Amino acid sequence: MTIAEHLTQGRRALEDAGVPGAEAALDAELLARTVLGWDRATLVSRRGETTEPAFEAAYAALLARRARREPVAYILGDREFWGLPFEVTPDVLIPRPETELIVEEALAAFGGGQPPATVIDICTGSGCLAVTLAREFGGADLVATDISAAAIDVARRNARRHGVSSRIDFRVADLLDGIAGFADLIVSNPPYVARRETATLAPEVRDHEPHVALFAGDDGLDVYRRLLPAARQRLTRTGKLVVEVGHDQADAVAALADGAGLGLEHTRQDLQGITRTLMFGVE
């Protein structure tokens, strides 16, 4: 069989497993390129070549994993965020493009003045936010917390990978427990999926990503109820809190923040026009 024939066969196998058509085609190609060690241009130019048995066995194994709806990021062990590669394992949430909006908000908030001296990243997961902000704010000291020790291990490796491990204090902690002092910037992409929405999630999310990083009670707001007042107590007078929210949670989270003494200063929408990022200041 040629590489092109394998790609067609792989796409059909993934579609039969329930992966949407366009995604199935992209995944079949990406997995083939991973086995071959080729970039996309090379694959396009050599797709008519016949394959070796070693390729066929390795490609079939990766396709079988994807057909079980395992996310490609876990199969490959990497996901790009803010233009940087991050290690991901089933112990951490896979970084999403919309989470980059938190970085954009942080840069916008401090871009015209004094950069933050101290940053805290709550529910750090893979460390994508902490590492990115450490690179963007070169003079800042950072603390990154997560309730999962396994997630903190992944985050530490990502910090070493990108040369910022000496500036990030990673701690296994529930939100801000045990964290002293104040921060100019606090960011968080906390768990915010409502338990009642479990059945609506894609199998890639529901069956493979860590539930501790996904779910937050019956309405998805349990973590915000604790995070917002805790963050208020740790912000400097001019400090900013930037959080990600679920697709229908912006108003509810803003109301909770107001009750905690935080004023909504700015929002940012994703590419679908959904408000996903909220920035608060101390009232």
Question: What would you note in describing this structure?
Answer:
- The protein has 283 residues and is an alpha/beta fold.
- The chain folds into two domains: 3-68; 78-282, Vaccinia Virus protein VP39 (Rossmann fold, 3-Layer(aba) Sandwich).
- Helix content is 41%, strand content 20%.
- It has eleven helices and nine strands.
- It has helices spanning 3-16, 21-36, 40-46, 53-67, 72-76, 100-110, 128-136, 149-161, 203-206, 222-232, 250-259; strands spanning 78-81, 84-87, 118-122, 141-146, 168-172, 183-188, 235-244, 262-269, 275-282.
- The chain has a seven-stranded mixed beta sheet with strand order 5-4-3-6-7-9-8, sandwiched between helices. A two-stranded antiparallel sheet has the order 1-2.
- Helix 1 (3-16) packs parallel to helix 4 (53-67), helix 2 (21-36) packs antiparallel against helix 4 and helix 6 packs parallel to helix 7.
- The chain starts with a helix and ends with a strand.
- The mean pLDDT is 97.
